[in-house]
Amino acid sequence: MELALYCPDCGYYEKENDTIGRRGDFYTSVSVGRLFGELLAFQFAAWLDAPRAHSIEPLGSPRQLVEAGAHHGHLARDILTWLRNQRPTLCEQLEYWILEPSAGRRAKQAETLWEFAGTICWAGSFSELAARLHQAAPSATSVRGIIFANELLDAFPVHRLGWDAKRFEWFEWGVAWRAGRFVWVRLSALLPASGLSPFAAPELLTVLPDGFTTESCPAATTWWREAANLLQQGRLLTFDYGLNAEEFLAPHRANGTLRAYHHHRYADDVLAQPGEQDLTAHVNFTALQAAGETAGLLTEAAQTQSQFLTGITQRAWAAGSGFGAWSSDRTRQFQTLTHPEHLGRAFRVLVQAR
Ligand SMILES: C[S@@+](CC[C@H](N)C(=O)[O-])C[C@H]1O[C@@H](n2cnc3c(N)ncnc32)[C@H](O)[C@@H]1O
Question: How far apart (Å, rounded) are the C-alpha atoms in residues 271 and 241?
């Protein structure tokens, strides 16, 4: 899955063609229009002004916005354009970091974001980001501001697991090459990294049918833990296709949540056409929340995208001209972002604070 999505030569996300948006394989909240970024910018500005509800001391300068996995750079453009127009002083005090391991993507993002060249910095990993912050100010090794991602963790590589009811244990599905195609093969032993603890509730396992399939994504939990540890003060948030731990074990998810998309359609075979189709699996929000809380963060919101964006929109309306005129185009975008049949229910949001 990692190679199919991120291989520098043939990975799906390394391709130049238009995979996201109306002509591509899937819509994201960013491809719907600029409103998603504008609402986030409004919320980020409020958080940066008053970092915790009861805090009396605003964050000092410099303050960082850290976006992970910026792909085209469109979300960064939408957020920074709104901040520059509506909150110019705050915008001047900001450092906008893009966390992006792909050199090809970094170059594309720089093209999209040429207007903001003085504001944006890139880092390939959390450790590089920490080192660069420390280089700039020896007393700072961590982020004061907001670390966020949109649809990043649901495109991290997963382990695919099956339930052996007779032996009362999980086994792992591997991928092999047979007769000219990729096929699933049952592995004899679990890989140690497959991180099954979120599914360990014994009362659920006693009724789980033989062969029940699901996924585990230790890479997402590790990523969240690293982000939490890097956050000195501020917020950590993500938007993803996702579920709570118990919801993964619902009867209608007996085949798991791993999906392939090609031209806006489910593709039947996730192993077919590697590099040509998008692959995604639901994020385990229970595991992320626990990882953040173990790292000392406080959970502020665990809700649907619809609930989260509707709350921001109410505050933006109350702010009147502080958000910008509410056009019919914004209304249309709001409906797509929040309607349960579009992007409102399938996407969930986790916000944690320190
Ligand atoms: C699924 S897209 C993210 C979608 C994008 N945020 C949007 O809203 O359209 C994947 C992006 O994440 C980047 N990426 C992959 N692994 C990453 C990691 N460990 N940290 C940060 N970015 C990563 C990819 O290079 C690519 O730019």
Answer: 20
Nearest CA to ligand 1 atom 22: 69
Q: Identify the domain containing residue 167 by its residue range.
A: 160-205
Cα(115) to ligand 1 centroid in Å equals: 22
The answer to whether residues 23 and 129 belong to one domain is yes
- Whole-model pTM: value is 0.93
The verdict on 33 and 109 lying in the same domain is yes
Among 125, 75, 121, CA closest to 98 = 121
The verdict on residue 269 lying in a domain is no
- Cα distance between residue 176 and residue 109, in whole Å: 35
Count the domains in the chain.
Answer: 2
Segment 122-127 shows an average pLDDT of 96
CA 57 to each of CA 48, 52, 85, 92, 232: distance values in angstroms, whole numbers, following the listed order: 11, 9, 25, 20, 14
Question: What distance in angstroms lies between residue 6's CA and the mean position of ligand 1's atoms?
Answer: 9
- Residues 226 and 338 occupy one common structural domain: yes
Look at residue 330 and tell me whether its pLDDT is greater than 70: yes
C-alpha dihedral (10, 13, 15, 21), degrees to nearest 10: 150
pLDDT of res. 119: 92
Residues forming a β-bridge with 174:
185
Residue of the CA atom closest to atom 8 of ligand 1: 150
Q: What is the average per-residue pLDDT within 15-22?
A: 60
CB-side neighbour CA atoms (13 Å) of 112: 18
Whether residues 239 and 112 share a domain: the answer is: yes
175 and 314 in a common domain: no
Shared domain for 222 and 300, answered yes or no, is yes
Among 13, 75, 108, 238, the mutation site with the greatest number of ligand 1 atoms within 8 A of its Cβ is: 13
179 and 69 belong to one structural domain: no
pLDDT at 56: 43
Distance separating alpha carbons of residues 196 and 130, to the nearest angstrom: 30
Residue 29 maps to a domain: yes
Q: Are 235 and 110 part of one and the same domain?
A: yes
Kindly list the protein residues whose Cβ atom lies closer than 6 A to any atom of ligand 1: 6, 13, 20, 28, 30, 68-71, 75, 99-102, 105, 150-152, 155
